[in-house]
Amino acid sequence: MGEFALELNDDQKTVRDWIHGFAADVMRPAAAEWDEREEFPWPVVREAARIGLYSLDFYAQQFLDPTGLGVPLTLEELFWGDAGLGLAIAGTGLAAISVFTNGTDEQIGTWVPEMYGDADNVRIGAFCSSEPDAGSDVAAMRTRAVYDAAKDEWVLDGVKTWATNGGIADVHVVVAVVDPALGARGHASFVVPPGTPGLEQGQKFKKHGIRASHTAEVVLRDVRVPGHCLLGGKEKLDERLARARERAVGGGERGGNAAMATFEASRPAVGAQAVGIARAAYEVALDYARTRVQFGRPIIDNQGVAFQLADMRTRIDAARLLVWRASWMASAGRPFTAAEGSMSKLFAGETAKKVTAQAMQILGGNGYTREYPVERMHRDAAIYTIFEGTSEIQRLVIARTLSGMPIR
Length: 408
Ligand SMILES: Cc1cc2nc3c(=O)[nH]c(=O)nc-3n(C[C@H](O)[C@H](O)[C@H](O)COP(=O)(O)OP(=O)(O)OC[C@H]3O[C@@H](n4cnc5c(N)ncnc54)[C@H](O)[C@@H]3O)c2cc1C
Known about the structure:
Blueprint: H1 10-37, H2 42-50, H3 56-63, H4 70-81, H5 83-90, H6 92-102, H7 105-116, E1 117-118, E2 121-122, E3 125-128, E4 144-148, E5 153-164, E6 171-177, E7 187-192, E8 199-204, E9 215-226, H8 234-250, H9 258-291, E10 293-294, E11 297-298, H10 303-331, H11 340-362, H12 364-367, H13 374-381, H14 391-403
Parallel strand pairs: 3-6
Antiparallel strand pairs: 1-2, 4-5, 5-9, 6-7, 8-9, 10-11
Bound molecules: flavin-adenine dinucleotide.
GO molecular function: acyl-CoA dehydrogenase activity; flavin adenine dinucleotide binding
Protein name: Acyl-CoA dehydrogenase family protein
Cofactor: FAD
């Protein structure tokens, strides 16, 4: 277990600087074009794969960094480069985390490499939990998974929505209801292997921001997957369902399910992405405030502008510290007793939204145009108070964890 330290070691600095180079030289120059095209940026992801940045090996190395800081450092730099392109590169991570969190060693060894492929054959993954009527309210999920014992197959039916990489992914991880009577405790996650008949992309969404990231519906009609595609295996599922049924009879607590386990593990990582966007906007605003002259002096000479920059930087540093704390706790196996993962995502997401708005204000008319990147950063940041649990849901999780009360 690594000690918590704010001083990065030489390996971490080297990796951070290497990603920063890619973000500055490859992502930044391409960002506006892919934002306009609103398509999955295959050439950028392939370039990331060519240099080893989009690869299972690289993410596994960062994931296993004993200080816990490998993943947040990587994501902050990528998203400093650009959030849409960053999510195209990092989006597979959510599907990979769900296999890591819920799968057996054998499933991890089989499916995670399938999601990344290699430099000559780049692959991507998608995690599909949300549905049209089940966003924050995961328990309202309707996609069904029914076991066909005669064939040892699971049959999936339903419609998933807003799935990052949905329909274009090689491997989809789908959360489905196996026992409707148990609410969120009656869910399980399934891998849908490449080319499985019955899985199709539905509507592709046109979005406000992160437009280089592909977001779409995933329609599942009579999708048959082998028994071994149930993450964690049937025996473990049966035991878990039996425990949940006992609790239901005894009127025990609710909560804890396949999708939530994935979100818990990924929240600090999403917070790190938001920190990257906020830092990028802050840097543009600081430069601009130093050089833009009005009333015969740089606008930063006004306290009204300078104090905003002071607040922006303070919030960004505070957000990063919350992200690093939660990342270290997760990697050290410490439980989030005060919902520290949710705190980091909440604060970093709100910071990205606020700081990018302040940056736009500091750039005045230029900030509102696509001549400067803060307009895009502001649109990109808005998703960080919505996906992977809205800010309201993070507050609910924190309040319930702190109080032990079923706050609604
Ligand atoms: C670009 C994008 C990418 C996404 N990627 C994925 C993905 O890869 N996989 C996936 O499964 N999902 C994904 N999502 C879905 C995302 O996680 C959901 O949009 C999010 O969880 C919110 O659900 P909802 O949109 O249904 O909002 P709702 O749940 O309908 O919420 C609407 C509003 O009501 C508030 N609200 C709801 N319940 C409460 C409450 N109890 N107390 C207080 N306020 C409440 C919410 O905070 C929000 O402000 C993505 C979404 C987008 C837009």
